[in-house]
Amino acid sequence: xxxxxxxxxxxxxxxxxxxxxxxxxxxxxxxxxxxxxxxxxxxxxxxxxxxxxxxxxxxxxxxxxxxxxxxxxxxxxxxxxxxxxxxxxxxxxxxxxxxxxxxxxxxxxxxxxxxxxxxxxxxxxxxxxxxxxxxxxxxxxxxxxxxxxxxxxxxxxxxxx
Length: 161
What we know:
By secondary structure, this protein is of the alpha+beta class. The chain has a single domain, classed as Aminopeptidase (3-Layer(aba) Sandwich), CATH 3.40.630. It has helices at about 15-20, 25-35, 75-90, 105-115, and strands spanning about 1-5, 35-45, 45-55, 60-70, 95-100, 120-125, 135, 140, 145-150. It has 4 helices and 9 strands. A 7-stranded mixed beta sheet has the order 1-2-3-4-5-9-6, sandwiched between helices. It has a two-stranded antiparallel ribbon with strand order 7-8.
């Protein structure tokens, strides 16, 4: 049975492999690993997904990492994690959630846009700081597209992947 739960800071290292699915540069991951809140999707106590959320200000949080075990993708797990995170922060009076993705990562863009996110800004040359080039569908990522969505106390994230 699928369950979502917050991960204690001292247990985050156990989720490193999953976090590296969402952000493949360990140096970039280290920048936010000890901040924010990590949520895990567990299936019979086995981790199959993660979501890392960092507070931006009093009204906004940013989804820094959302990843699902490759063999479990397209089963609604990422949508469930996003919905869980959205409800947790909406009940804490946060108003908006941001997420960044690569300029050529069309699958991620489609995923987030189907869940109500809209383009907010562009972080030019963002992927230049990665130790190795990052590719999506054979295209080198260069800029980060930042998307934004209101946080509402509804079940708006249930669109299937």
